[in-house]
């Protein structure tokens, strides 16, 4: 449920108007802490740090919290065009193109999404640590969520752990997927014969993918997929195991005649705003290569 408290950012400080009930309380400090936890949902770890550092203060009827201190980017900034899908003082959602990794893995000269986000923050004059909340495979396109302060990071990390952040995908797969297929509940583990691959394994981690068939073509299907868990290569492993590898997914036996990368795109990202409690739904339009693939399959 969203909170209705008005807030304004003033430099590193967030200014709130809690109302007369807090101001008139007999134990002013205790009531303030109780209000921050129970009404505002402030992460207790952050609250304790701000209390210790004396970063919570009153200015008349306004409550000030030092939520936006300067933080090093933590990564070199490299400027490239960045498609911003949503941004405020707490969150950033950007489109990740296919072929780009999210964070560096040590390869010389690589440009990752984190590098480009760092340049975006610099260009906006913000001293913000680059912190992505979830990941996408290198050759999967779609939205990626970033936290812009500690409050957001703690809340969103917890929501990821509790599976409250919804990630909805579309994929083009081989074969005609049965309409009766609605859920794949098969554990996933490492493939001991191939370092990069994963496989369905009884000793693996729990993995659940929800499936809905949208359209069928000659020898292929368009499916909508939703993750209840976030295992490495989960959609790719599950669909391949059922005999429907993703088109273009060479690692999992997908044919590469029509598209040169796995035909997988994160179409929607839904999350609860870490401060306001508002339900946010981000739609990331299909990239050109998937639109062209669908046109080819429809002919």
UniProtKB/TrEMBL annotation:
Pseudouridine synthase RsuA/RluA-like domain ranges (all copies): 92-241
EC number: 5.4.99.-
CDD domains: PseudoU_synth_RluA_like
ATP-binding listed as a keyword: no
Catalytic activity: a uridine in RNA = a pseudouridine in RNA
Keywords: Isomerase
Family stated for the protein in its record: Belongs to the pseudouridine synthase RluA family.
Job description of the protein: Responsible for synthesis of pseudouridine from uracil.
Protein name: Pseudouridine synthase
Organism expressing this protein natively: Paenibacillus macquariensis
Lineage: Bacteria, Bacillati, Bacillota, Bacilli, Bacillales
